[in-house]
Specification:
alpha/beta, FAD/NAD(P)-binding domain, seven-stranded mixed β-sheet, five-stranded parallel β-sheet, 6 helices, globular, binds flavin-adenine dinucleotide
Length: 427
């Protein structure tokens, strides 16, 4: 087995991991980035549509163009890159507060020691099994990302008559992509009364191509032996229960699932890193540090972001903080790292990150999603005594669209042992 030592190791070579490695290296740290695929870029490699980088580069880039810019920056720095290398185990060092990792690589097993670790492992798609899809088990059922990989990377069309279940962004983008490739997309069927994708994707991917969006409707069962021959759809009530008598059979050869993404963190289970149930990602402070000092996370592994610009921003924050941690500069006394003041949330919020604040940390950048669509909303933060310390108004809020704002850390240095954030609808 080979052995290597670094100040900072980044796991995952998507946009979050690349930004993290760039930031750590710029702080003077001896940095390694590890990616299980043959090339860096993460999910961006297969996202050939444009719309990436509007905030970061003030341009409408395609996914590969965005990834290329990020990689150019990485290549200009002395960062070690191991591709086709997969993390199989991570644990605390027997002595000290560093980490010991085991990877499989084309050269065999690799053992790496690091002062700080950043996980940037992205997320995975929910499958038919996770939404209890009933009926036969024919071929022709794909997740939207799988179908995107087939079309954009391998040049295969997954089917000709296509039904899309779920209105997540990847499904909307694939509705357009498959139409452009000559397939007939019968419609997008969404169980909720509102679409889950971005407004711009509803307009640009469905409305512009006259693809129907059917809300409060789901796929009840799948038919076909060998290859799929059709699906039965039906309407649902406000409690999402299927309404008898509303069933309709659709003849199709392919069902594409766009029913949600889950942060990919199973590799951390052994370390018992506290998770935020609202995001399924590790609970981090404003420096992206998890409840395990020295372990940081960023990008979609932390929470599913809507824009890649925010993914890169969280990577840069994690990279800077991990470098300072590894060099012993973060928190004058490392014990300060364990101070994690809970930011409780009210029912108006689907979630907010960070979920904990360290009063010795950096100025926090908050991202949040509203729990429901609001024409106007007022966000407030209260301290432990119930006094409002901050408020901000927003004109229009929808759960699929993330909001961002930043505050000086001094707001959180009043000695409170908890804070409370909520969002109220203002009509
Ligand atoms: C279909 C689709 C369309 C999108 N469209 C837009 C858009 O129009 N505009 C926009 O701004 N954003 C868009 N996004 C969002 C954006 O692309 C993602 O938010 C971003 O790519 C997430 O970056 P990441 O680095 O967190 O994760 P990823 O890009 O998923 O990268 C994670 C990397 O970690 C690696 N990895 C995982 N586990 C391990 C392991 N154990 N060992 C080694 N490596 C590992 C993976 O192979 C992967 O390369 C889209 C996303 C998707 C999926």
């Amino acid at each position: 087995m080979k052995h290597e030592n670094y100040d900072v190791v980044v796991i995952g070579g998507g946009p979050a991991g690349i930004s993290a490695a760039v930031a750590a290296c710029r702080q003077g740290c001896f940095t390694l980035i590890v990616e299980r695929e043959e090339i860096l870029g993460g999910i961006l490699k297969q996202c050939i549509h444009d719309g990436f980088g509007l905030f970061r580069y003030k341009e409408r880039l395609t996914g590969p163009e965005y990834a290329f810019r990020e990689q150019n920056e990485l290549n200009s720095l002395p960062v070690t890159v191991h591709t086709s290398t997969f993390l199989v185990d991570i644990c605390r060092e027997d002595e000290g507060d560093g980490f010991l990792m085991t990877f499989v690589s084309p050269d065999g097993m690799l053992e790496v020691r690091a002062g700080a670790v950043i996980t940037a492992t992205g997320c995975r798609e929910r499958s038919g099994r996770q939404i209890f899809l009933h009926g036969e088990r024919p071929s022709g059922i794909f997740t939207a990302g799988q179908a995107q990989g087939f079309v954009n990377l391998k040049g295969y069309l997954p089917g000709k008559r296509i039904v899309i279940l779920g209105s997540g962004d990847i499904g909307l983008i694939m509705a357009r992509r498959l139409t452009l490739e000559g397939a007939h997309v019968l419609g997008v069927y969404e169980i909720k009364p509102e679409p889950s994708g971005l407004t711009r994707n509803i307009a640009q991917c469905l409305e512009d191509y006259s693809i129907p969006l059917n809300l409060s409707t789901t796929v009840k069962s799948v038919h076909g032996r060998g290859r799929m021959t059709g699906v039965t759809i039906c309407r649902v009530d406000e409690k999402l229960n299927e309404i008898d008598g509303t069933e309709k059979n659709l003849s199709c050869d392919t069902l594409i699932l766009s029913v949600g993404l889950i942060p990919e963190n199973e590799i951390l289970d052994k370390l018992h890193v506290p998770r935020d149930p609202a995001t399924s990602g590790p609970e981090v402070d404003q420096d992206q540090m998890t409840g395990l000092p020295g372990l940081f996370t960023c990008g979609n592994a932390q929470h599913v972001n809507d824009l890649v610009d925010y993914v890169s921003e969280s990577g840069s924050m994690a990279g800077r903080a991990a470098a300072e941690w590894a060099e012993g500069r973060k928190y004058t006394h490392k014990a300060g790292a364990s101070i994690r003041i809970k930011m409780n949330r009210g029912e108006g919020l689907l979630y907010q990150v960070p979920a904990v604040i360290n009063p010795h940390g950096s100025d926090p950048v908050f991202y949040f999603r509203a729990a429901k669509t609001m024409d106007g909303g007022r966000l407030s933060i209260k301290d432990g005594r119930g006094d409002e310390i901050f408020s901000k108004s927003f004109t229009f809020l929808k759960p699929p669209e993330m909001e961002r704002f930043s505050l000086p850390v001094s707001f959180f240095q009043d000695g409170s042992d908890e804070f409370y954030m909520d969002l109220e609808e203002v009509v």
